[in-house]
Write a structure and sequence with these properties.
The protein is an alpha/beta fold and 447 residues long. The protein contains 11 helices and 21 strands. It has a domain of 96 residues: ANL, C-terminal domain (GMP Synthetase, Chain A, domain 3, 2-Layer Sandwich), CATH 3.30.300. It comes from Irregularibacter muris.
Length: 447
């Protein structure tokens, strides 16, 4: 978007015309872009050509968007192996795509971090485009002062919002990569930050640090919170309620993958919309890889429709999601498909006695009990031949230790009512569990 177009756009509610496309037009655009990507990669990428030929897929098989099912799924492990064989980027840098202008790197929570290169065109023209829509829908404007609370790391989820706010909307964006939490709080106040972005875990922690210094987060002037990098209010409603209670402002959730783009963002109606002109989503049965019925849960597979530096096609994200609703018109006026939230990572969801236990479900229970702090973790253990779950959590500092046992029983009962199975609950002293500045790792499997 040019400066002139951006200035003109201030008068309008929507950032992109894609947000209002009729369903038929959106599907035509998706198919057109998919065909272009497949032909591009067939010509440019030896990795994809070899992978597709081995799986008997050829570009001419694409007759409709549903024919994407003939393309083999791409896993993160395949990306890692390609980068080991052909460092540093492996199959994530398409030959001839142009000079690298920016890199990102995954957190490495499921293995060796993946490096993700961007050309300038891809980063600002495609990736940041996915994020700026979320900023604009949340109400971020040129007169806002935006701060993305994260270290100066190659975590593109918050870096993209930083750059989208500065370069697209024209907001004053405050850096603070090496600030500790107390310094961050002081600078938010001094510089009169109005929009604060971060992971839910860190923004809750930041609010607690402020309270311990007798600073009410609600008095700090923040009018909007933007959360990304972890499951937010769209997936864990009680996390959203805690954030709203702490900061006293509206909460908007964005999600995505570093390998593809910002996938979803939230409108003023609290509905998560999909950037479906930029990414194509499939929800598949985790066991069969067949599409689930519309609106049903399953594993998320994403295809990048626009980027040319590192195109990922049918990328298995490792996320289990609640489903997608297509063909609805939101009260906000947008026609984009609606995203129903995340259940958690495939590796964080375990089955006990036939019941799937997810981190988002446990988090929603814990954060719905007022005495519980924001610090918790759960683990899968072996008890003889049986699997069991242990939940460890800290209570708020002002809770009398004599009440810990009763509250632990309350948490256990609520978990049992929610999941219909018994879980062991252990209350640990404040400061026992690790603090996280970015993404929290709440689950450990010791079986």
């Amino acid at each position: 978007m040019t400066d002139n177009e951006q200035t003109t756009n201030v008068r309008y509610k929507y950032w992109s015309v894609a947000e209002l496309l009729p369903r038929e037009e959106m599907e035509k655009l998706q198919f057109k872009r998919l065909v272009e990507q497949i032909n591009y990669l067939w010509d440019k990428s030896s990795f994809y050509r070899q992978k597709w030929e081995q799986n008997d897929f050829y570009p001419e098989k694409l007759k409709t968007i549903e024919d994407i099912k003939y393309i083999p799924i791409l896993t993160k492990e395949e990306i890692r192996i390609s980068q080991e064989k052909d460092p540093p980027y492996g199959m994530m840098r398409i030959p001839g795509s142009g000079p690298i202008n920016r890199i990102a790197m995954t957190s490495g929570t499921t293995g060796e971090p993946v490096l993700i290169p961007f050309t300038k065109e891809d980063y600002f023209g495609n990736f940041c485009e996915g994020g700026v829509r979320g900023l604009w829908a949340a109400g971020v404007r040129k007169d806002d002062i935006l701060h993305c609370a994260f270290g100066f790391l190659p975590f593109i989820g918050l870096a993209g919002l930083h750059d989208a706010g500065e370069h697209f909307i024209g907001s004053l964006v405050i850096p603070g990569g090496t600030w500790d939490s107390l310094t961050r709080i002081k600078m938010i106040q001094k510089l009169q930050v109005t929009v604060l972005a971060g992971t839910p875990t860190y923004l809750l922690h930041l609010a607690n640090v402020a309270k311990k210094r007798q600073i009410d987060p609600k008095s700090m002037g923040i009018r909007l919170l933007l959360t990304t990098g972890e499951c937010g209010s769209a997936s864990v409603p009680n996390t959203g309620l805690r954030l709203k209670e702490a900061w006293g402002c509206k909460i908007y959730d964005l999600s995505g993958t570093q390998e593809t783009n910002y996938i979803t963002w939230m409108c003023e109606e609290g509905v998560s919309h999909i950037n479906e002109d930029l990414v194509y989503l499939e929800i598949l049965d985790p066991e069969t890889n067949e599409p689930v019925e519309p609106g049903n849960p399953g594993k998320l597979v994403v295809t990048d429709l626009v980027q040319k530096t590192h195109c990922v096609i049918r990328f298995e994200t490792g996320d289990i999601v609640n489903g997608i609703e297509t063909g609805l018109v939101c009260k906000c006026g947008r026609t984009l498909s609606q995203f129903k939230g995340y259940q958690g990572r495939m590796g964080d969801i375990i089955k006990i006695k036939g019941v799937c236990v997810s981190i988002t479900g446990i988090e929603n229970v814990i954060r719905g009990i007022k005495e519980c702090s924001d610090q918790y973790e759960y683990m899968a253990l072996k008890d003889g031949e049986k699997d069991k779950i242990l939940v460890q959590l800290e209570l708020k500092d002002d809770v009398d230790p004599s009440k810990w046992e009763d509250i632990g029983q309350k948490v256990a009962e609520t978990l049992r009512e929610t999941f219909m199975i018994n879980m062991n609950v252990k209350i640990v002293p404040p400061g026992t569990l690790p603090l996280y500045d970015l993404k929290a790792k709440r689950f450990r499997d010791y079986r």
